[in-house]
């Protein structure tokens, strides 16, 4: 309700975004001049170089025909739905005409959840893979459907404490996929703790990491105690997916949910809804336009950075 009131008009959203982007007053992106006049509520014209700048230029909102007010409400929906947002839910709540619009909104926001240029995890880091089961209705209740492999990297802070995480869907648990994920997610020089799966064996030879493998395939009962943090993250992820979608997440949508889970998890300590709203809005203003055509078919190549 508070948000509805605060951002009840397009003008209030424009002003808020402008204040966020230019906290010390307008700056021309062309010549860095700070003298400008406001041609309309949302457009500035630089007095030095005459360049016209929209408040949404260079942000995720730039190529959108949707009013900012709608974007703000969509962001609010995403951060307040504890069990995760869905395109269908978003379409209903925002009263959008088409599912496609809601879907593209959600996937653009997903890009913003994955903050550009974010830091890699620092060691020690636990890494493991697990299967996320899609389920399908069957003769005897729920039957396991296609399973999807997800790899996770989890920062070990102290004792059993968890820092930040990274998640990614991978095609196979082979050295190519696992090493690519680790290089992408973990700072070089870090201690990487894994089990003794062959896919991790080349890690030490790469020279970038201190590999600390623990034999555990022989005693699967002890997995939780050897890599406790990564297994806790997997169980939280599974529970979250289960409560949202009864576990039946379509494989093509899984990347979105992994990013949303990561966004929430890495901000769990400052998880006031207002703060999450501000973060996602801020990151939406940081990344450039995300054309619809680039959203499609990216799901398998996306790197969950
Ligand atoms: Zn200028």
Describe the protein.
It is globular and about 70 Å long. The protein starts with a helix and ends in a 10-residue tail after the last helix. It has two domains: 2-116 and 287-295, no CATH class; 125-256, Ribonuclease H-like superfamily/Ribonuclease H (Nucleotidyltransferase, domain 5), CATH 3.30.420. The protein has twelve helices and eight strands. With 305 residues, the chain is α/β, with parallel strands linked by helices. It has a five-stranded mixed β-sheet with strand order 6-5-4-7-8, with helices on both faces. The chain has helices spanning 2-6, 10-21, 68-80, 87-94, 99-113, 175-185, 203-206, 223-226, 228-245, 251-266, 273-286, 292-295, and strands spanning 36-40, 43-46, 52-54, 125-138, 141-156, 162-170, 191-195, 210-214. Zinc ion (ZN) binds next to loops. Zinc ion (ZN) is lined by residues 28, 30-31, 33, 46, 48-49, 51.
